[in-house]
């Protein structure tokens, strides 16, 4: 059942990414043609934006494919973190291919020679078509994130902050930026037509570049944290600690560490003070039973390591306090 849900989630993420990629490729061609016809810096910046988004989808598809590999001898915990690496490259792509190009076009227009606008109606038509296509992709991404949030019993925005799957989040963020960028491009072309000054076109292009740089920063920060090794969601950590503490053989949970090793895959390391009356065989059976119960109750838990320790160990206590601060 767990594998089924994971397969369905991956299928939904793949559909979201493929749909976004197809839309972005078509939109990039339209924007490029409109930019060349009108000479609009904002339209050319938006063409660069869509090219960057298309490259992003290719990187996300690679992330989905590589992260699905099974564990092997060289990677005993699997390839789940590959999704974070390729998603980080996607954020870099948004910045390099989209933001830098848009900023270059914008500043070149603002500080360069004035440019005459031609056929602005072409830009308006392309922007309208692009907005409609981007809206389809955005709605699919939003539905995907909403389904994930419901499955995790979180609100939409809490899930965006805590989600360990960067693929659908990346598509949602870039599609949101794309819709905002289209409005900025529309404003730039419109102001250029009304005032006759190409400066407005350049300002819109700069604004698009800043927007893309901000989105790239948000996605880069998220994926960097996941690559470094982020703990599981707080509600899962609390549930794991409560389950361990409730075991009849346990006197106290001394330390509990978790780390995301992939989407819906959590590594759990617990240091537990067991009842001193337990024999070696009883201790072994207790560890096996507790690990099995944790995996059964929480499908995201992939690996469990339980270490018996005395709670009076001062060196261990100092390490725990250094990590979390004084505990209640």
Short account of what is shown:
One of its GO terms (molecular function) is monoatomic cation transmembrane transporter activity. The chain contains ten helices and three strands, in the order H-H-H-H-H-H-H-H-E-E-H-E-H.
Describe this structure in words.
- This is Cation diffusion facilitator transporter.
- There is one protein chain.
- Helices cover 72% and strands 9% of the residues.
- The protein has 328 residues and is mostly helical.
- It folds into 2 domains: 2-228, Cation efflux protein transmembrane domain (Alpha-lytic protease prodomain-like, Up-down Bundle), CATH 1.20.1510; 234-324, Alpha-Beta Plaits, CATH 3.30.70.
- A hairpin with a 2-residue loop joins strand 1 (250-262) and strand 2 (265-274).
Q: What order do the SSEs take from the amino end to the carboxyl end, as H and E?
A: HHHHHHHHEEHEH
> How many DSSP helices?
10
**What is the fold-level CATH name, i.e. the topology of the largest domain?**
Alpha-lytic protease prodomain-like
Oligomer: single chain
CATH superfamily of the largest domain: Cation efflux protein transmembrane domain
Reading off the top of the CATH hierarchy, the class of the largest domain is best stated as Mainly Alpha
Query: Which overall shape is indicated by the principal axes computed on the Cα atoms?
Result: elongated
Task: Detail the poorly predicted runs.
Answer: 1-9
In terms of DSSP E residues, the strand content is: 5-15%
Number of domains: 2
> Span between N and C termini?
38 Å
Helix content: over 70%
- Tally the beta strands: 3
Largest sheet: 3 strands, mixed
For the biggest β-sheet, the strand order reads 1-2-3
Give the mean pLDDT: 85
């Amino acid at each position: 059942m767990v594998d089924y849900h994971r397969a369905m989630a991956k299928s939904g993420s793949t559909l979201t990414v493929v749909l976004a990629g197809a839309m972005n490729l078509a939109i990039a061609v339209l924007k490029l043609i409109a930019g060349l016809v009108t000479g609009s810096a904002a339209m050319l910046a938006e063409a660069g934006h869509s090219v960057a988004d298309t490259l992003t989808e290719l990187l996300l598809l690679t992330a989905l494919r590589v992260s699905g590999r099974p564990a092997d001898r060289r990677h005993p915990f699997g390839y789940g973190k590959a999704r974070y690496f390729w998603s980080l490259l996607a954020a870099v792509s948004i910045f390099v291919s989209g933001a830098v190009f848009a900023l270059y076009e914008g500043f070149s227009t603002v500080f360069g020679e004035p440019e005459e606008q031609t056929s602005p109606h072409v830009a308006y038509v392309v922007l309208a078509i692009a907005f409609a296509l981007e809206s389809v992709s955005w709605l699919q991404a939003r539905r995907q994130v909403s389904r994930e949030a419901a499955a995790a019993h979180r609100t939409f925005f809490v899930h965006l902050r805590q989600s360990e799957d960067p693929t659908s989040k990346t598509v949602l963020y870039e599609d949101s930026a794309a819709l905002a960028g289209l409005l900025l491009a529309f404003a730039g072309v419109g102001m250029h037509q009304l005032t006759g000054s190409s400066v407005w076109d350049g300002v819109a292009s700069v604004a698009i570049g800043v927007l893309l740089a901000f989105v790239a920063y948000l996605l880069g920060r998220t994926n960097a944290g996941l690559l470094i090794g982020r703990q599981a969601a707080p509600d899962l950590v609390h549930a794991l600690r409560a389950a361990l503490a409730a075991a009849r053989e346990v006197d106290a949970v001394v330390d509990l560490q978790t780390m995301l090793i992939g989407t819906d895959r959590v590594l759990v390391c617990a240091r537990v003070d067991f009842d001193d009356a337990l024999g070696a065989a009883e201790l072994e059976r207790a560890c096996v039973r507790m690990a099995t119960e944790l995996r059964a109750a929480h499908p995201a838990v992939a690996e469990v390591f339980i270490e018996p320790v005395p709670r009076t160990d001062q060196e261990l206590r100092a390490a725990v306090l250094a990590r979390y601060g004084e505990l209640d």
